[in-house]
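Lab notebook page, bench 4
Experiment: in silico fold of construct C2
Operator: M.H.
Input chain length: 180 residues
Purpose: comparison with the prior construct
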Amino acid sequence: MSAFRKRVLCLSGSLRQRSANTAALQAAQALAPVGLELVLYDGLGDLPPFNPDVEAAALPPPVLFLREQVGQADALLMACPEYAHGVPGVFKNLLDWLVGSLEFPGKPVAWLNASGRGSHHAQDALVEILQTMSARVLGGASGTVALPGAGSSRGEVLASAERCAELRALLTALEHALRA
């Protein structure tokens, strides 16, 4: 019997140099249980604006890379900031490039909210978008890891026993959902 091992592609919805969302995903990489390999996607800023004409003609290399990474993943873990009560345009652009892909439908997706301010509009919108895209949203493996705000680092997240416990709980729930 082979050991349980699942590849989880981590997608941050932020382009900030010191992003709380990216820091939360980096900390999750360090805390992941043995059965989960967390891989951070870092091509968000390389994606061109979504254009159906371009998609129909020939996919740009950054889009091909994104779709390849999604295809190789057993699940996705998303951390998305909230801007103006919604999903940031750059992250929605990433999702738009996946709408027409064969790699995305049915993909298990969990999300984490790194906002310590109780923001929930982006997560609500994100879940709606993901369901429309035929993702298998893992609500039980999703939740809030309340970071102090923008500018958090991986080290600061890992220095907090409470944040580590929250991340471990989400990752354990993700592992259980993927085993089911």
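Observations: The two ends are 17 Å apart (CA to CA). The beta strands are 6-12, 36-40, 75-79, 108-115, 136-137, 143-147.
Next step: discuss at group meeting.
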